[in-house]
Amino acid sequence: MPPPKKRAETSSNPNHPYPEVQVTGIAVIPEVGKGDDLALLISEAARRQGTPIKKGDVVVVTQKVVSKAEGRVILLKRVKPSPLAVSIARQHGKDPRHVEAVLRESRRIVRMDHGVIIAETRHGFICANAGVDASNLPDEESVCLLPKDPDGSARGIREGIERRLGVEIAVIITDTFGRPWREGFTNVAVGVSGLDALLDYRGTSDAYGHPLKVTVMAQADEIASAASLVCQKTTGVPVAIVRGFGYKRARGKARDLVREPSLDLFR
Amino acid sequence: MPPPKKRAETSSNPNHPYPEVQVTGIAVIPEVGKGDDLALLISEAARRQGTPIKKGDVVVVTQKVVSKAEGRVILLKRVKPSPLAVSIARQHGKDPRHVEAVLRESRRIVRMDHGVIIAETRHGFICANAGVDASNLPDEESVCLLPKDPDGSARGIREGIERRLGVEIAVIITDTFGRPWREGFTNVAVGVSGLDALLDYRGTSDAYGHPLKVTVMAQADEIASAASLVCQKTTGVPVAIVRGFGYKRARGKARDLVREPSLDLFR
């Protein structure tokens, strides 16, 4: 078994002529609270468990710990539901305070049916409950909101780790979203820093030298899904290191993943 | 660096207390043609490059090579477009023979706009051009269709590899699909054998012991996306081995990923 250290680009290396990516869960993050320095906590946890962050790694962080560090957790007893929230909650069997939190995070309600509220967040993401979520919080009477500026949060964590360790990396912040037509949630990127969210193949050729047609891959979402294989919901592993994916350093952001409303056939 | 061999479940092992998944591209598949034995080709290619398939691996195979092996490539000169196909092609600047192939693979047209045909395939998948694709084919005057029964194709490859190597594995067949609301394509599962497509957390607890609410993860799609990190479109790496993902052996299928029309808010 060769050492899984090189980038995918080194597939031209005759000693290692195939691409290989390694996804490692960082299990030992202590309980995160408001004001905590995630760059410090993640760097230290990775070092302590014997898998320190290295140049070229993509550090993938679950939204929940970012929101906790940024104080984006609200106690439901502090939320006064509007008459609309009370009415919606009654129709759908929900907590009116939770519904109120969802409405406050939304800039548009896309669908409301089958007990599900699909909303567009102020960042432009379309997801259930505008990303407001009650799981993995110490207090059951609280809910967690998405970071205010997840791309900015990703940049802050990236710069913090880079300053601390002196290596260039990328950071992706993830959340689990549902989607039309297909069952099951998948992990997607809500914040990106240090690489492009989209990998654009237009103008390149396929393996036969023909021009590729359809060809913008959502690489940040695919990295988010890869991280999900080690960051499962029940394990308390909120961070993963994705190593060996040969990306180009770039100023991408998760907002690039939001389709222009005028080009979207399904709004 | 510890040997990346164990399953994610062994995170209770004090010598290796974190989950780790390895994704390895299998680069050396020779040109696949109709009637080829993919189980043989994949097993041999993995062995030759020094990364043989092992018990518990998920072998992820790009749809294109499966379709080629199954003879699901058609020459456009053999396709006689219907008047509807000619009319659609004219409106959208497409090849009428390609449109005809798309219509034959569709059981419903979901949207037709912005030069894109979103169709429901006879398997129930909703995707651009009903999965009919012209890239990565030796002859530019041909198109590739999805396998007739991709879950059956996955089962055939799984059983072939298991018989040959005497180890239990799982197989996922992938394609790249677009999605509403978010830019970029992601790799998803169109065929599954040997594990569940959906990972159902309902009835389990989060890291704080609270019951999880939203909680069916599309694990087959997340594995497909992880494989995409090494199977990029331009590299000619049509197969990946995902190792270390602790799944339960089960009789899942990709059709489980298709949402019941009556529960879908976006058809």
Give the SSE map.
The structure is a homodimer of 267-residue chains.
Chain A: E1 20-26, H1 38-48, E2 58-62, H2 63-69, E3 73-75, H3 83-92, H4 96-105, E4 106-113, E5 116-121, E6 126-128, E7 142-144, H5 150-165, E8 170-177, E9 186-193, E10 199-200, E11 216-217, H6 219-228, E12 239-243
Parallel strand pairs in A: 2-8
Antiparallel strand pairs in A: 1-12, 2-12, 3-7, 4-5, 5-6, 8-9, 10-11
Helix pairs in contact in A: 1-5, 3-4
Report on this structure.
- Two copies of one chain form a homodimer.
- Chain A contains six helices and twelve strands.
- With 267 residues, chain A is of the alpha+beta class.
- The first copy, chain A, folds into two domains: 8-72 and 146-259, 2-Layer Sandwich (60s Ribosomal Protein L30, Chain: A), CATH 3.30.1330; 73-142, CofE-like domain (CofE-like fold, Alpha-Beta Complex).
- Chain A starts with 19 loop residues before the first strand and ends in a 24-residue tail after the last strand.
- Mean pLDDT of chain A is 89; it is low at 1-14.
List keywords for this structure.
alpha+beta; disordered N terminus; CofE-like fold; globular; 267 residues; 60s Ribosomal Protein L30, Chain: A; five-stranded mixed beta sheet
